[in-house]
């Protein structure tokens, strides 16, 4: 019905916006209408960015981070100020951005490319785990920080990884990100699992 | 800093998505990453829809609704089943979609192109009010329903329009959408202005 009310080009754009994650029909309408209201040039810039995306972005063959098509390896790996003996293992490339924003980490990253999820048919063999083992050996890695998500899948993946590395006979420190109360959250609103983690991981002050 | 962490093409796309209304940096990242993860063809379809948008959509010269570039007038105006003597006046083209979804209205629409807002420098002269007066005369309009937003600007616009039509010496019914408690909202959560409107507009049942 909506095809009759709105011009086809706008309906098409609404449908395409609606295919982005978490974008419902009303939000898609709002984006499409905003794209129409502003200068054509601005919408064309978004179009160009979308068109060029796949050919200009590739995956680093060592860290599996996203890199420029002109780069051979991730700049976060080739940077000599970075400690290659310390690897932070994440599920997705965008997790790297979140960690880099802290400005606290001077090691390198390894993107698994997801988490183990039997429901979605993702087993350990689809993740970049053999390549991680390779790196541990090649770069003489002394510590890996497992920074998978705090979801069931993230937890299983962390557990799997820990066992896999131990069974491979590699001796290095394996750590995980601390779980606890996030900043700005009142104790009374924290869920019980988070609170259990916070109790478990409590730090002695003196 | 983020330019070094993520490939340029992805950063560009994140910036462009971020220019859409209500899209913050994290949401823009999520959209851009989703665009990268899925097939290139799907992202190119969104790009194409954006590229064609401005040349394929135009404004109806009578109703100011958005129409296909191949149409002369809005199909909602030319449709013979539509009552041209009844006009629903709205602020923006997308408001038409919201009203059409009800399936309750068989009149035609008139898009003002905004609402009176001195802060934003929008006066009545920037709205399609003279064209509305023209239509009222040409089509022998018997009723206009003012369906501006329930905001300060929408209210002022409605008031201005009402006076303007009366001062033009046109005799026709002018109505407004009812204000009251929306479906699914508990009385205790309704704000006092909405409740005042609901009391004022109460309907006698027998």
Automatic annotation (TrEMBL), chains A, B:
CDD domains: TOPRIM_recR (cd01025). Residues 85-182 form the Toprim domain. GO terms for biological process: DNA recombination; DNA repair. The keyword Lipoprotein does not apply. Keywords: DNA damage, DNA recombination, DNA repair, Metal-binding, Zinc, Zinc-finger. The keyword DNA damage applies. One of its GO terms (molecular function) is DNA binding. It comes from the Bacteria. Signal peptide: none annotated. InterPro entries: DNA_Rcmb_RecR, Rcmb_RecR, TOPRIM_dom, TOPRIM_RecR. Belongs to the RecR family. May play a role in DNA repair. It seems to be involved in an RecBC-independent recombinational process of DNA repair. It may act with RecF and RecO. This is Recombination protein RecR. It comes from Candidatus Nanosynbacter featherlites. The lineage of its organism: Bacteria, Candidatus Saccharimonadota, Candidatus Saccharimonadia, Candidatus Nanosynbacterales, Candidatus Nanosynbacteraceae.
């Amino acid at each position: 019905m909506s095809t009759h009310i709105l011009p086809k080009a706008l309906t098409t754009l609404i449908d395409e916006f609606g295919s982005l994650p978490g974008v419902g029909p009303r939000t898609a309408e709002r984006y499409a209408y905003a794209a129409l209201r502003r200068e054509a040039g601005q919408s064309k810039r978004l179009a160009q960015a979308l068109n060029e995306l796949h050919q200009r972005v590739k995956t680093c063959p060592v860290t599996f981070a996203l890199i420029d098509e002109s780069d051979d390896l991730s700049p976060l790996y080739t940077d000599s100020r970075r400690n290659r003996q310390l690897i932070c293992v994440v599920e997705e490339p965008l997790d790297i951005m979140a960690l880099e924003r802290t400005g606290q980490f001077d090691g390198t990253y390894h993107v698994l490319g997801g988490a183990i999820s039997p429901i979605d048919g993702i087993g350990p063999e689809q993740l970049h785990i053999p390549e991680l083992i390779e790196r541990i050996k090649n770069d003489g890695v002394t510590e890996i920080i497992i920074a998978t998500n705090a979801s069931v899948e993230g937890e299983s993946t962390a557990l799997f990884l820990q066992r896999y590395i131990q069974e491979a006979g590699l001796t290095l420190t394996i750590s995980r990100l601390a779980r606890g109360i996030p900043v700005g959250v009142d104790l009374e609103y924290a869920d019980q699992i988070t609170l259990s983690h916070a109790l478990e991981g409590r730090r002695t002050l003196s």
